[in-house]
Write a structure and sequence with these properties.
The protein is α/β, with parallel strands linked by helices. It has one domain: Response regulator (Rossmann fold). Helix content is 37%, strand content 13%. The protein is built from five helices and five strands; from the N terminus they run βαβαβαβαβα. A five-stranded parallel sheet has the order 2-1-3-4-5, sandwiched between helices. Strand 3, helix 3 and strand 4 (93-97) form a beta-alpha-beta unit. Helix 2 runs parallel beside helix 3. The termini are far apart.
Length: 161
Amino acid sequence: MNKNAGAILLVEDNPDDAELTRLALARHGLDGRVTHVSDGMQALDYLYRREAFAHRVGGNPVLVLLDLKMPLMDGIGVLKEIKGSEALHNIPVVVLTSSTEPSDLQRAYDAGTNAYIAKPTEFSQFLSAMKHVCEFWVHINQTAPQGLNAGGRPSGFGDLT
C-alpha cells in the first residue's frame, strides 16, 4: 500500500480539538487525508462502511487518532471493537486525549492501543507532538497488508509441530 495515499481517521467530539488537530496535521501536509467523525459510533460506521460511509472508497486508514471521552460510544469501546475485529485489528490506533488519569492510560493499553498521547495544552507543544505522531505512524511505521490473515503467515522457523 502506498503510505502517502492512506487515510487518517480522527475521532474527536470536541470541534475545537478536532480543528486544532487538523491544523497540526495540515502543517505536515496531511490535511487532505483526514476524515473527522465526532463519536464512536460514527467511527465504527466509517471503519465498517455503514450508514453515511456505506459507499466509502479506499482501504482501512493508516492511522486512527482516537479521543477517549465521547458520546454514544467512548474511545475504549471503539478501541476494543477495532482490536477485536479480524478485519480491523492491524490498524494502528493512537489515543489522543486530554486525560492523564492512570486508570484511563491502563484501560487504553489493556484494550490494545498502540500509543497514548495526552494532549499538551500549549499549541507549540501540541504541534511538536503531532509532528512526531506523523513522522512515526504515517511515514515510518509499516502497517500489515490488508486482507492477509496473520494466522496464515509463515513463522520462518519451519514446522514446529
